[in-house]
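Milestone 3.1: sequence recovery, worked example.
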């Protein structure tokens, strides 16, 4: 799949990124290569392959999951201790919805 410069600029706009023309051309090429590779993967025959819903598993010594343990959580004051701006028990952040 070949991406156009306009498509790359559109996605960059959604991510609130400003790209130079050189970056747009480079990313269009790189992303097109990635999508082409994904198209090739879609051609693989996966009949008979069980879908994986979880790559982590609980199997004794080879377990990739840790045991759930109840531990005390941070107090509100501790959680906000390093916040640049806080108030009313919450983190305060700049408004970023509008450009």
């Amino acid at each position: 799949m070949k991406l156009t410069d306009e498509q790359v600029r559109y996605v960059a706009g959604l991510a609130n990124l400003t790209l130079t023309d050189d970056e747009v051309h480079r990313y269009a090429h790189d992303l097109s290569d990635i999508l082409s590779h994904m198209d090739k993967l879609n051609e693989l025959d996966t009949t008979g392959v069980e879908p994986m819903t979880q790559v982590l598993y609980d199997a004794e010594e080879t377990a990739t999951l840790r045991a759930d343990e109840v531990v005390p959580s941070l107090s509100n004051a501790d959680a906000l201790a390093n916040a640049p701006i806080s108030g009313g028990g919450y983190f305060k952040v700049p408004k970023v919805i509008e450009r």
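The domain at 5-42 is CATH 1.10.20 (Histone, subunit A). The helical segments are 5-14, 21-42, 76-80.
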